[in-house]
Amino acid sequence: MSLYGVLAYNYDKVAAGTAEILSGSRMISDRLGLPSGDIRMALLSFENYLLANRNTEKPVLHISLSPAPEDQLTDGRLAELAERYMRKMGYGNQPYITYKHADTHNTHIHIVSVCVDEQGKKISDAYEHRRSMTACRELEADFGLRNGADVERRNPKAELRKVDASLGDVRHQVGNTLKAVLESYRFQTFGEYSALLSTLNIEAKQVRGEYNGVSYTGIVYSATDDTGRVVSPPFKSSRFGKRFGNEQLEKRMLMNLKALKEGKRAPSIQGDIARALRLADSRKRFVELLGQNRIDVVFRENERGRIYGVTFIDHNRREVFNGSRMGKEFSANAFNDYFKWLEGISANERDGHTAAELWRHHRYKDGQESALELAAGILSMETNLRDYEEEAFARRMKKKKKAGRKSRGI
Q1: Domain with 302 in it
Q2: Helix 128-143 to helix 75-88 angle, to the nearest 10 degrees?
Q3: Which segments constitute the MobA/VirD2-like nuclease domain (predicted)?
Q4: What is the pLDDT of residues 27-81, one digit of tens each?
Q5: Same-domain pairing of 134 and 79
Q6: Are the C-beta atoms of residues 155 and 136 closer than 8 Å to each other?
Q7: Which of 13, 129, 177, 288 could crosslink 19 through cysteines, CB 3.0-4.6 Å?
Q8: Is the pTM of this model over 0.85?
Q9: In the chain, what's the furthest Cα-to-Cα distance?
């Protein structure tokens, strides 16, 4: 993260009319009471600090403070919020510039500064995250703002509902939905987890980096609209609690995967998928039929429209599975080839016919081992597929009977 890059990001927003320079401290300027609108003067303000820097690898600070939409603050109060936060964090004597951004549903501020003093010494960042959270809680109380750390307490019984940014308090909504997901759904991979969240208007992204020579993986969450477009600033997982971070999620996913491999649970929606595939004459209709059974399907496609991933979300049993986990015939390749074949049949020919009927009359002539043959094989089979849930129950009963015989000495 270079100083020029951070400043350019904010100045570009100013030039686009979605941000403005709000305030500053110890900044060289050509206008009274505000930092200069010239990026060169902003760079000059930090120059001596960076030249004096001894050995700090990351001397640039880029801080974002995002009050809830309901917390209507004047420009003066936002500037005061920035000034008091910097003092509480030990950066009060540093040069810094504050920008007000209005490019999302809620107004928020960005602060740019450096973390080395005039002698080039690093300003202590010991327990910085903890101190930052404490500072935010104190400022929320002083300014009468909503408490961002209060999501859990305000939602003892989290509800599973889509995030709607237009309703405001997005951080609260995201936290509530994340809590409901973790309390009730099982998934084995981050891809399955993020696919589930995407149906609830939440984008989850893994971010990787290095700190003090140690690699780390974090997660950030953002709200989206129904088209998947991000409509909120990103929130670090720590804003919601440790269990929503990468480390705790990995433990949960490994536990679920182990149960799956040991046969304690298994996908049980193959029959529903097969029935929908047999009846649907289009991809849209396939999705609709699954939805009637409270099963969501998320297709991931590249820029050319090729399906490279498919995830099924069973809301009845609260389980999420990548298609390939249920067999090759349910894999992304199979669905990609199948829908491509189906779209190649004219709408007139498809009208009034099920996919199974279309397959009998327009059978694909490729090799029998093609991905399409695997998927289309479902069309000619009965839909009373293996009941994995029943089989798992039978195995548990068998184990219990065996254990009972041993205890009786049989």
Answers
A1: 270-389
A2: 140
A3: 33-145
A4: 999 998 899 999 999 999 999 999 999 888 889 999 989 887 678 899 999 999 9
A5: yes
A6: no
A7: 13
A8: no
A9: 94
